[in-house]
Amino acid sequence: MVDGIDGKAHYVALPAKTELAQYPVGAVVEVRGSTEVRTADKNIVALAADGLYRTDHHLAIAKVQATSARDPREVIDAHVRRLEALRRSGIVEHIAEGVWRVPADLPEQGRKYDAQRLGGVAVELRSHLPIERQACVIGATWLDQQLIGGASGIADNGFGSEVREALRQRADFLIEQGLGERRGQRVILARNLLATLRGREIDSVAKTIATETGLAHRAVTDGERVTGIYRRNVLLASGRFAVLDDGMGFSLVPWKPVIDQRLGQSIVATVRGNSVSWEIGRQRGPFV
Fold it and tell me: Is 203-280 assigned to CATH 2.40.50?
């Protein structure tokens, strides 16, 4: 049962193999029909030239279209995550770093892929934290995404009213942190808000890990390839991150479930924004 931001309760029939543990009680989830064509798929086809989608081309466009509060790389990250999922099913092909070969009918193939994989309904975890905990935490949260997007479609009753109150508290918290300012009835958020919040949280957690392990934290720059032993993962407000240890220092990179089978092994991560592609041993190219 899902309390919706529309103020209504929704009953969702999950696929038989769904692991309920991945949806903690109180977490924020998004439910949609898997028969819908994804906006990301339509964007990718529209931006492709001669069947090739390029992240640098998309980023240049996103920067022009970006609002003052939105990080254009967040847009690209979301599209790359979608492409990586479609690559595993053989629908798209990864040609080179930031370059993908996509079919002209990608939206329809993507719709069929979702329908077959998800059995008619898609449930995605947006945050493991309840909204009351998101209101006053350092980290990129679901509430921040709603503030950036204008918080549309939120009812005045039920869970919608709780979200509205949490958004008000979150805005006040961001202003206290110097990441927003109030202008009349409006709150103007800092540019690249999500990246700033994520960076602050990672820095804080990295200090704790450095104290525990005696290893120095090596911050990851955009586009950098990081090599190390996958030691563990840590769950943050900004999401889950893998700890890669190179023997002298460690880095925190966005985690994906597929790498857990590689615990204790050397892996290579290429980080772009909040997305990541992986290599193991001689295997080249992204596998998540």
Answer: yes
